[in-house]
User: What shape does this take?
Amino acid sequence: MKDYTIFTDAVSKNFAATGVRVGWGYGPQEIINKMKTILSHVGAWAPMAEQKALAAFLNDLPAVEEYLYNFKRKIARRLDGFYAGLMALKQEGLPVEAIAPQASIYLTVKVDIPGDIFNGLLNEGIAVIPFSAFGAKKADQWFRLSVGSCKLEDIPAILQKFRKVLMGKIEMVH
Assistant: This one.
């Protein structure tokens, strides 16, 4: 399929290595050569040390599998922790909903309160991205919450802040 498919990928998403900008591509040689030419002029390449270190790591399949196993397990526990906490807030009668975790490092959350909830959460140190930022229409109350950078033990405190913002916004509406 290499002659008919262009495939690009990078370590930053697969391993949640946000600052590591090492990527790769496969495809028809003519197109790959053009990609190389463009990259050689824009200065968008990763440092050689990062490239070599990543190549050595990726060649150690047991290390890669161990890392991914542990990483995915930790992410799943954080996703489940946030989901359970948000569902508990919903059980309290607060206007919040979440879609059960299915993959990745994100939880889809709905806050059914008119007005600006984004800045209220941000002021409490909770960063969510509205789905409208990704071009979704009529998604003002839907947000993407990343669990990639939080610790499991921080989730209860974050949920308390989330609750505080919801309670404050409800009081403002009434």
Remarks:
- The mean pLDDT is 89.
- Residues 69-173 form a domain with the Aspartate Aminotransferase, domain 1 fold (CATH 3.90.1150.10).
